[in-house]
Amino acid sequence: MSGGIYVDSFAALLPEGIIGPQGLRTWDHGQSGPRDVRRDQILDKPYVNFGKLMLADRLAFGAASIALSESAITERETMAIALGIPAGSLSTDLRYIESVQSGFPSPAIFSATLPSSAIADIAIYFGIKGQNRVIAGNSSSCLYALEQACMLLELKKATSVLWCCVAAVDSQDAQSPLLDAPLAAQCKSFALVLSPKPRDNGFAMRISASFQPGSVSRVVSGDELYFSELFQLLINQKTGSLHCASGDVVATLSLEKDG
Amino acid sequence: MDSLIDTLKGQIIAALKLSDVKPEDIDAGAPLVGGGLGLDSIDTLELIVLLEKEYGVTIPDVNVGRQVFSSVQSLASYIELHRTKG
Amino acid sequence: MNAISKKAVVLEDCGILCGLGELEETVTDLFEGASAIVPGPCFDVATAYAPFKNLAWRDLESAAQDLAPCIDASALDKDATTFIFCAAKGDLAPLEAYCASQTPPGPFLPLLSSQADFARSVLGVSSNRTIVVSNACASGATGVEIARELLVTECARTVVLFGFDGISRFVATGFHSLGALSPLGARPFDATRDGLSVGDGAAVATLTYREQFSGDVIVAGAAGSNDANHRTGPSRTGDGLFRAARGALADAHIAPADVGGVKCHGTATKFNDAMEAKALVHLFGDEIPPCFSVKGAIGHTSGAGSLMEICIAAECLRRRLAPPTAGFSTLGVEEPIPVADARQVLKSNSMLCLSAGFGGINEAVVLQEAR
Q1: CA separation for the pair C107, C360 (Å, rounded)
Q2: Using a CB-CB distance cutoff of 8 angstroms, which residues of chain B are in contact with residue C233?
Q3: Which domain holds residue C200?
Q4: Which of A170, A220, C100, C288 is the 20 to 30 Å CA partner of C172?
Q5: What's the CA gap between C202 and C51, in Å, rounded?
Q6: Residue C41 and residue C149 in one domain
Q7: Domain count, chain C
């Protein structure tokens, strides 16, 4: 579908560790994975709202923070955010219902019970004022969000796009019959800053994606592997192609170098 | 009153999930809402829930609220006057 | 009939379900100043609210069944059709039933994608792409913008949009905990306004990209933005909504002076209406066209609502009239916004539709009736 879209910066919170342009940092002793990420691992300065973030919002904010702090792009008024969030706000919804059942509904938790809550703190903290596209609900969400990001850049509705994905299910909810099995085990996030121009020096990696919507039989572990592979390529600045099938979307993501 | 203030500081930190703040960082006489803790309007609403849940105290209107939340000290005084539990 | 000119994104079919009923009767009632807001309690919360005229619609399957006749699903080509489901929360009944009594989920899971697949099958739509847009209370409007993009880039030949957001204990207690609800009923832009009224809403719409004919309502442009200000409240200057509106007008290649009327977000909270008024003045200066809000008549119907209100706005545009704003009597914002408790004549064949949502999201859509 597109060419001429560059990866300006990237980050991920994955089971194997925290990923950014500098490489991989494994989790500290005592941290089970992305759900235990600490503020000092993603931001240099204290941030009063960090502790208030529900799981999905915290993971999205974490990946976005690292990617944006490594990004060369300073124009944030026309930066868009395209978020893919497979499990929606389910974990937060369950925490809110618990607060209602306790007799004291929580306004803070309620205000986070939307799939789009995950972008709120990112937009506020980093001053990102462009378009928002939030695609929720199943494993296709992340690739549809990328399709949105590419569309916004191609149509010049944004000068850059933060493509962010978060799969967040509280461990207490993982066995719930409310979830599709493929989502139950996941807790991770990533963010790529995409731009129509390559960075001035260093990192000129072009990403192109071709999407083929169509009925694909559900791939149970489909998106667990390919995003880790994507980050291996990015960290090592290697070119490559990933064939991804997830939900009702088949996509090929290619990373190429200019020059 | 002092032990109520100490308890309140801990409860505020827990209820508002102020992960970078310790009780000794909070000055009991300093502005609570609109002060250095960076609390927003949703935090104020959570404080109202906290008062009801822990002390059975309600805030009748916005003006009373503004006065009550002006510091941890004023919050403690209000609770002492009106508490029905805790 | 002769084609007018180049291709445009045409709003082919629309259907809605709300407190005043289906589309025709809702529009008729709006012009008579009627309101579907009734006194509470609403799920034990002391607030007025606007339930579906037919309570059976609160079940996703019934709502989709009753909206299915509004679109001609049999004519759709699976490989060229995209289905977009728009919802902030969708149908929360299965989630609440499970939490209350461990009732296993029925024909669909709480996840929005499962609701989307289910609704699509009840509507009888075959598509090769199902996108779930959940952009808070602007979901439907963002869905319309996405549909427009898919059509003009020829990623799809038809886009079917469906939105559903039902009132629930979850939503009623939540807005109540935020102090956002009016005890007596929403009064948009009014001096005595004191909060919103939750409402049930569902809508379906079909869009295509083809030559325009006289009488077609087209989606001429759209844009979105973020206030980047507060978790739930809008920017006090209305800057985000202004930028979305300005972007939508630019996308439609029209100037503010060409706009015939504004379908406001108008939730009737102190903050939203004050902010929206500032955005309107920033955009239009002294020459603000007739404005209206339907949330004093059918309540705040959340993500599905922004799709529903676009369908209602299209019908108003065909009549070249803005309906009275139910709940309004005396202007209660600093700026002289032309909101009225009577119908107003639109200045032109263009309507600007505004929506906003939690997280600072703003979305603006421009409708035009082809002459």
Answers
A1: 34
A2: 41
A3: 7-211
A4: A170
A5: 12
A6: yes
A7: 2
Which domains does chain B carry?
Answer: 2-82 (1.10.1200.10)
Question: Would an 8 Å CB–CB cutoff place A154 in contact with chain C?
Answer: yes
Two tokens at C327? 């709940």
Q: Are residues C118 and C232 in the same domain?
A: no
Question: Does any CB of chain C come closer than 8 Å to the CB of residue B61?
Answer: no
Superfamily of domain A5-200: Thiolase/Chalcone synthase (3.40.47.10)
Q: What pLDDT is attached to residue C125?
A: 96
Please tell me the distance from the alpha carbon of residue C9 to that of residue B72, in angstroms, as a whole number.
Answer: 58
User: ipTM of this model?
Assistant: 0.96
Chosen from A42, A52, A106, A124 to mutate, greatest number of chain B CBs within 10 A: A52
Rounded distance, CA C205 to CA B11, Å?
50
Chains sharing 3 or more CB pairs under 8 A with chain A: B, C
Helices (H), A102-254: 107-110, 117-126, 141-154, 181-184, 222-235
- With CA atoms as reference, the chain C residue closest to B42 would be C178
A 159-218 residues inside an 8 A Cβ radius of C = 177-180, 183, 213-215
**Banded model confidence at residue A229, pLDDT cuts 50, 70, 90:** confident
Contact check, Cβ <8 Å, A108/B42: yes
Query: Do C191 and C246 reside in the same domain of the chain?
Result: no
Residues C195 and C244 in one domain: no
The answer on C122 and C191 residing in a single domain is yes
Residue A78's CB is within 10 A of a number of other CB atoms, namely 18
C313 within domain boundaries: yes
Q: What is the pLDDT of residue B38?
A: 84
The per-residue pLDDT of chain C, averaged, comes to 95
Closest CA to A110 of C18, C9, C22, C181: C181
- What are the residue boundaries of the structural domains of chain A, listed by start? 5-200
The answer to whether B17 contacts A52, with C-beta atoms less than 8 Å apart, is yes
